[in-house]
Design a protein that fits this description.
about 15% helix; single chain; 4 helices; about 180 residues; six-stranded mixed β-sheet; alpha+beta; 10 strands
Length: about 180
């Protein structure tokens, strides 16, 4: 069974007005998208469809968490996500995307697939910098061994005894200049 089938919303038989849909988003959803940054997640999607005479208005509310890889220590961690978006679907001659928020579909269509939009909204809700954060402290929760090694290479700590510090300037220290 195709996990994305449930996101293909049939709107022809619906009356004018507001209609609510609820979805659970998990690994099966993300597995349908190649090269997804997210592989695991536990999200809820509350979708409000307002059917009008000449268009459809979708309001998306996405809440939950996803598993990401920490940029700092390369360990997986849970990132909370909450995002609200609105999408206008107009009827026209052919499929087209006028803006990020306005899509045109042919007049004869009876269903609208929101799965790609849900995936994009989740991806856009991800933070630019993905680092463990616990109790409001960025970096707390990172692997201490990796953090120590990073600090060593970034100049935060001196190498352990017996280790030689690598510096790009070491080669220049022995140069003699004739005056």
């Amino acid at each position: 069974m195709n996990p994305l089938k449930q996101y293909n919303i049939g709107f022809v038989g619906l009356s004018l007005g507001k209609h609510e849909f609820s979805f659970r988003i998990d690994e099966s959803f993300f597995s349908c998208f190649d090269y997804s940054e997210v592989r695991k997640g536990n999200l809820s999607l509350e979708l409000l469809l307002e059917k009008q005479n000449n268009m459809l208005v979708f309001d998306f509310l996405i809440k939950g968490n996803v598993e990401l890889i920490c940029d700092h220590c390369l360990e997986p961690y849970q990132q909370d996500i909450e995002d609200e978006r609105r999408l206008y679907v107009k009827f026209g001659d052919a499929f087209s995307e006028q803006t990020d928020e306005i899509v045109v579909i042919p007049v004869g269509e009876s269903h609208f697939d929101v799965s790609q939009f849900v995936y994009e909204y989740i991806t856009l809700a991800l933070p630019m910098q993905r680092i463990h954060s616990e109790d409001g402290i960025v970096g707390k929760g990172c692997d201490p061994a990796i953090t120590d090694k990073l600090n060593q290479y970034l100049g935060g700590k001196k190498p352990a005894s017996g280790e030689r510090e690598n510096s790009p300037w070491d080669a220049l220290k022995g140069l003699k200049f004739n005056d």
